[in-house]
Amino acid sequence: MHRNLHTLLAAAVIWPVTSLAQVERPRDAEAPAPVATEAGEKPVELPRWLERRLEDAPEELREFFLSDEGVGAYPKPERLFEKLKPKTREATIAYIEGMKFLADEAKFDPETDMASIPLNTDSSSFNSWKVMRPKEMDPEREPGPININYYASSRFGIATFAGAPVAVYPEDLEAGNVDVAIVGAPLDMGSGYRGQRYGPQAMRAVYGMVGEDMATMIAPEQVLTIVDYGDIAVDNMSTEISVHHVRERVREIANAGAVPFIVGGDHSLEYPNVAALADVHGKKSFGVIHFDAHYDAGRGRAHWITHGQPVYRLVKEGHVDPASYIQVGLRGPWPGPDGFEWMRNNGMRYHTMAEVEKKGWDTVMTTALREAREGGKPIYISFDVDVLDPAYMVGTGTPVPGGLTMREAIPLIRGLCAENEILGFEIVEVAPMLDPTYATALNANFIVHACLTGMAMRKEGFDDAGYYSDLTTEHRQPEAGELGKAEGKQVEVDEGYAWSPPGQRRAGPLDEGGESPQL
């Protein structure tokens, strides 16, 4: 149905939320006439007064109004009827003519519209943006990850994801037995809100992607071999062109035996990322857990791929089984009833924030973890940062209040990555220029850290989402202190500590005269 078109015409009619039970039925509409709609949908009932009003209307106009482009395109047709009832017959006909004009003008016209965007194929630099640098132009070296920093500490020098070594070619991934290759994909032309192209740059610049996880006392970089695989080239004049190259590069990582972690970029990237893994592992061979405020299964738009359409395209092309696709965190005005009905009809499971309000976070989290394990399939995690509440994620283009907290998101992601085989992970829609602080990039890094920790837990044999370190969750006092004292492990008091160099006078903070000792 062409719902997007008629939203413009009927915004004042549709948006006030009024149920059928709340609409007073006119006296002359006791026996409404059904209107044909799309297959599988309940027919719209046309009031008799409106049926009579249209009896002498032109046949073409009448057919339009009774079609799914006319009254059938309205989610709440009774509101349209309320709008039309006070009008005269002539005004009603004129209004419907206006509806038909909008519907006709919105369609593709081969005489005036471009069916595709022409490109200058004679350009000598047509593919220059994605040409691989020949290896022969660089000094010869053995394949494997490369440490590019002068200092032993990764906090200084050239910034990389997770402070990790760099891999340039698939041979580097294979020779280094790399577990995780983190790659940037600075694409933001799939969104009406720009700036996501700077996500990889911002996330490399701040900490949080690795280090000790206090909940489990596991440092993922000590268990997993992690590399920075650079940024994938994109043509920021064309999302359609770019996604094909992204698919090639993600497929390259998976074929080398590493798990791709893609840092976006906007959510258009989910399409090439998941399709690439389907190329390698087989279509419908894995599940997808999709964290987002929006369901991103839009369809029927002029462009085949945007940041609001990857889910539908993946399902439509058969890359994923909708029954193995789980949505988490949905809220706000989109989707409407038709979107939820589409998910239900296709076997897709979803967990909205409304469900969290109704059942509680613990119940919803337990259900999502259980559903992810069902069938024993590996999973791919798509994490749109706007699933988080804007209090934690200011720098994103389409924030929606009422989202997940970081305290809710971290254990859920860690648990998913511990309990399931992970084929890939993406974090998208980080738009750092919308955030005057570094909190957006920092929190995004900690989400990645949660999954890396879960993968490290699984590799170490801790595949239970409920695992927590006893050391950090139980102080064990007074028994632990008493044992430490008995074993001579407690701190010995030294009043001169830090007040003089070793071997010199250590009289304490104040000498006998009441003045500090000379250091």
TrEMBL record:
<keyword id="KW-0378">Hydrolase</keyword>
<feature type="compositionally biased region" description="Basic and acidic residues">
    <location>
        <begin position="476"/>
        <end position="492"/>
    </location>
</feature>
<dbReference type="Pfam" id="PF00491">
    <property type="entry name" value="Arginase"/>
</dbReference>
<feature type="region of interest" description="Disordered">
    <location>
        <begin position="476"/>
        <end position="519"/>
    </location>
</feature>
<dbReference type="InterPro" id="IPR006035">
    <property type="entry name" value="Ureohydrolase"/>
</dbReference>
<dbReference type="InterPro" id="IPR023696">
    <property type="entry name" value="Ureohydrolase_dom_sf"/>
</dbReference>
<keyword id="KW-0479">Metal-binding</keyword>
<comment type="similarity">
    <text>Belongs to the arginase family.</text>
</comment>
<protein>
    <submittedName>
        <fullName>Agmatinase family protein</fullName>
    </submittedName>
</protein>
